[in-house]
Every structure is written in C-alpha cells, then in structure tokens.
Amino acid sequence: MGRGVTPAQFQASYAGLLRKVRTAYPNAWIFALRTFSGRFGTETKAAVTASGDARASYVDTTGWLAADDLSDSVHPNDKGHRTIADRLAPVISQHLPGLPQVSRHNPR
Predict the structure, then answer these.
(1) What is the DSSP letter of 88?
(2) Cβ(51)–Cβ(18) under 8 Å?
(3) Integer Rg of the chain from CA
(4) Are 86 and 61 in contact, with CB atoms under 8 Å apart?
(5) Which residues sit opposite 58 in a β-bridge?
(6) Where are the alpha helices (DSSP H) in 25-77?
C-alpha cells in the first residue's frame, strides 16, 4: 500500500485495514504510527479519526528518528529501532496502564 496510489486511495485502503484489524482483534488497542518519512501521514491520521474507534490512536512520529537512525534514509537500523521502542513504550503505557514499565535501552 502506498506506491502508485492517490492520497484518497491510501486513506480508503488504510481505513479498510483498520476495520480488518478491529474485526480480528475486537478488544485490542490499535496504534497507527505516522510513517517515519511522513508519507501519507495526514491520510493515516484522517483514517483513524474517521473510524470513530475509541480504542484506535494515531501516533505522530515526527522527529523521532535522525539520519543515523536509518539504514537507507527510509528504514530504521538497529539504533533506530531502539529509538522507536523508547518513544513508543510510553505511548502504549499511557493507554494500557496495567503494563509493566519498560526501561530505556542503552545507546550503543
């Protein structure tokens, strides 16, 4: 999903994905992350909002990764994955307070 589609097509497809996830996991909390490149971020957020699902959250990842967190200017490397985990863990804990706290990774 994403290449060769319009923003409207992406949003519609993402809305369909959210519906499928909700059907498969009716009690789950859904965290929809903005792509780290920002591509279709507006459409992703709009699909989450339009879903009206109280247990679905859009997570704005703007500024989460620096150039040295990426393997090829798009995909996270090991350091990037640690950075994502460190940023995402508190977001998840905020919505699921019964989970144990996760300690931060030591940067290598």
Answers:
(1) H
(2) yes
(3) 15
(4) no
(5) 32
(6) 41-51
Question: 70 pairs with which residues across the strands?
Answer: 76
Contact between residue 90 and residue 102 where contact means Cβ atoms under 8 Å apart: no
pLDDT tens figures, 67-104? 999 999 889 999 999 999 999 999 999 998 777 765 55
AA letter at 93: S
Q: In terms of C-beta density within 10 A (0-12 exposed, 13-18 middle, 19 or more buried), how is residue 43 classed?
A: buried
Q: What is the pTM of this model?
A: 0.84
32 contacts 58 by C-beta, under 8 angstroms:
yes
47 and 11 in contact (C-beta within 8 Å)? Answer: yes
Cα–Cα distance for residue pair 80/1, rounded to 1 Å: 23
Q: Strands, E, within the chain: which ranges?
A: 30-33, 56-59
